[in-house]
């Protein structure tokens, strides 16, 4: 019975959001003459206008998405909030996800690809660490081929500082999208933390006695949900759907999406290597469902004889969750595993994927990964070290390594050097943190909505 109530609640939330989206679409049709919401545009004017709303959301009036088009709707959104900042932000975000203004779009639509070169979009999950994002963007800027990608920044925090970083990208097409169920947008209710939720460590008997909202749904370890931890998995799964199904610039995208996070850092030849790996996949491992740009192991020794080698392995979340790239076929396999992904009691998206590789996907995943990584992590200092994190020091170290080996970068071709014994890998523990039925239902809803 509880379960029904939660389902109904989630449904109500989703209906409300749908209604908001429709209202905004209508506004878009009518908007004229209202004031500017200065300084609000995250992506600013889309050069040449954003892609037309052909086949976007049903019922949307065809709109001219010119450079002034944010003014009236944003003003309307602000007015709608009635001075309530949370409501204002929600409207803004729905509006932007709907309109999808792509900056420098002509670079993407006009890109010239060589024979066999796959179109590539980068999808970066961005939380709130501007300094890391700045470094990632700097690493992208210097990489030949970057001008051909569509850069999608998927945010769960609206922040002027992050928007300014996105606005400063002038070397490739950029689209900002916003996870619409973030804690920022729902600060005091699900999917954020509701004051009526059970505290994490409350015993279930006491929780039932108190009647807190999710008393019946602790995780496998008897803990209640923590919104901060649940958000990352939600965001990951939402953006997977949104990128493959809702981003108009990626409609029928026949190439790869490369998934990154704000604290990743790219080698200058990442794009070239990604294309080589893709070619290698076609030739030597058509059933490699994933490419990874590198694992975490520290690089020892020089790059000679290694920078043009890739390994073929069973996919392991702890090694190959960075710089993952895959095509639509892999997405479709994942889509078919929605229920398994959303109900698995682990708040880590990557461990959950590991679970899918043995319990839902048609076969465990094989991955091609270069011996010398082309993606690095600048963010681990926060997790394991007490001292202040200095991402710029990390990236300087990485640059020194790359620079010392620059004659080995940009390999002409790549080959598979090692084939490890391939076998399914089960997650050895389940981490919990994902026992709440509301999380399950919201997570399952992404494939249907927006
Ligand atoms: C963009 O704004 C400029 C200045 O207001 C205007 O002249 C131009 O026509 C606008 N372009 C579009 C596509 O709306
Ligand atoms: C703003 O709106 C939200 C959502 O309806 C509500 O929960 C919150 O209390 C409002 N904030 C203020 C300050 O009124």
From TrEMBL:
It is a single-pass type II membrane protein. Belongs to the glycosyltransferase 16 (GT16) protein family. It catalyses: an N(4)-{beta-D-GlcNAc-(1->2)-alpha-D-Man-(1->3)-[alpha-D-Man-(1->6)]-beta-D-Man-(1->4)-beta-D-GlcNAc-(1->4)-beta-D-GlcNAc}-L-asparaginyl-[protein] + UDP-N-acetyl-alpha-D-glucosamine = N(4)-{beta-D-GlcNAc-(1->2)-alpha-D-Man-(1->3)-[beta-D-GlcNAc-(1->2)-alpha-D-Man-(1->6)]-beta-D-Man-(1->4)-beta-D-GlcNAc-(1->4)-beta-D-GlcNAc}-L-asparaginyl-[protein] + UDP + H(+). Residues 35-68 are annotated as: Disordered. Its main location: Golgi. Residues 1-25 form the signal peptide. It is found in: Golgi apparatus membrane. It holds the Pfam family MGAT2. Its cofactor is Mn(2+). InterPro entries: GlcNAc_II, Nucleotide-diphossugar_trans. The lineage of its organism: Eukaryota, Metazoa, Chordata, Craniata, Vertebrata. GO terms for biological process: oligosaccharide biosynthetic process; protein N-linked glycosylation. GO terms for cellular component: Golgi membrane; Golgi stack. This is Alpha-1,6-mannosyl-glycoprotein 2-beta-N-acetylglucosaminyltransferase. GO terms for molecular function: alpha-1,6-mannosylglycoprotein 2-beta-N-acetylglucosaminyltransferase activity; metal ion binding. Keywords: Disulfide bond, Glycoprotein, Glycosyltransferase, Golgi apparatus, Manganese, Membrane, Metal-binding, Signal, Signal-anchor, Transferase, Transmembrane, Transmembrane helix. Mn(2+) binds at residues 263, 377. The gene is MGAT2. Glycans are attached at residues 67, 84. The keyword Transferase applies. It is an enzyme of class 2 (transferase). PROSITE patterns: PROKAR_LIPOPROTEIN (PS51257). Pathway: Protein modification; protein glycosylation. Disulfide bonds join 198-212, 285-288, 337-360, 342-443, 381-389. Residues 37-66 have a biased composition (Low complexity). Substrate binds at residues 125-129, 156, 231-235, 300. It comes from the Eukaryota.
């Amino acid at each position: 019975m509880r379960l029904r109530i939660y389902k109904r609640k989630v449904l109500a939330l989703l209906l409300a959001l749908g209604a908001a989206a429709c209202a905004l679409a209508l506004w878009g049709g009518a908007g004229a003459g209202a004031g500017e919401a200065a300084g609000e545009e995250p992506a600013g004017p889309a050069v040449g206008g954003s892609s037309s709303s052909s086949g976007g959301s049903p019922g949307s009036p065809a709109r001219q998405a010119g450079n002034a088009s944010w003014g009236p709707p944003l003003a309307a959104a602000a007015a709608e909030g009635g001075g309530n900042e949370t409501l204002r932000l929600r409207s803004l975000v729905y509006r932007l996800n709907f309109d999808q203004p792509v900056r420098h779009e002509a670079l993407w639509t006009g890109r010239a690809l060589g024979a066999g070169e796959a179109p590539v979009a980068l999808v970066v999950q961005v939380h709130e660490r501007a300094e890391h994002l700045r470094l990632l963007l700097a690493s992208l800027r210097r990489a030949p081929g970057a001008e051909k990608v569509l850069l999608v920044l998927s945010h769960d925090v609206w922040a002027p500082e992050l928007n300014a970083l996105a606005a400063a990208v002038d070397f490739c097409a950029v689209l900002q999208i916003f996870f619409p169920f973030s804690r920022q947008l729902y600060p005091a209710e699900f999917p954020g933390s509701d004051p009526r939720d059970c505290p994490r460590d409350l015993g279930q008997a006491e929780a039932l006695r108190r009647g807190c909202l999710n008393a019946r749904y602790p995780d496998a370890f008897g803990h209640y949900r923590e919104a901060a931890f649940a958000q990352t998995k939600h965001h990951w799964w939402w953006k997977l759907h949104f990128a493959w199904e809702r981003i108009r610039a990626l409609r029928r995208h026949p190439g790869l999406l490369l998934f990154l996070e704000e604290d990743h850092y790219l080698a200058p030849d990442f794009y070239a290597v990604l294309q080589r790996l893709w070619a290698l996949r076609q030739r030597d491992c058509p059933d490699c469902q994933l490419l990874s740009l590198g694992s975490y192991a520290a690089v020892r020794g020089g790059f000679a004889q290694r920078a043009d080698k890739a390994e073929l392995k069973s996919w392991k979340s702890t090694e190959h969750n960075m710089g993952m790239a895959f095509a639509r076929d892999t997405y479709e396999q994942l889509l078919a595993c929605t229920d398994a992904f959303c109900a698995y009691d682990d708040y880590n998206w990557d461990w959950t994927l590991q679970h899918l590789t043995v319990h839902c996907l048609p076969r465990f995943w094989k991955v091609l990964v270069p011996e010398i990584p082309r993606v690095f992590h600048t963010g681990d200092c926060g997790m394991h070290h007490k001292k202040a994190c200095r991402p710029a020091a990390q990236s300087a170290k990485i640059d020194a390594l790359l620079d010392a080996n620059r004659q080995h970068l940009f390999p002409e071709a790549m080959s598979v050097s090692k084939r490890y014994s391939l076998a399914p890998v089960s997650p050895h523990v389940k981490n919990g943190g994902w026992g709440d039925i509301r999380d399950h239902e919201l997570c399952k809803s992404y494939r249907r909505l927006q």
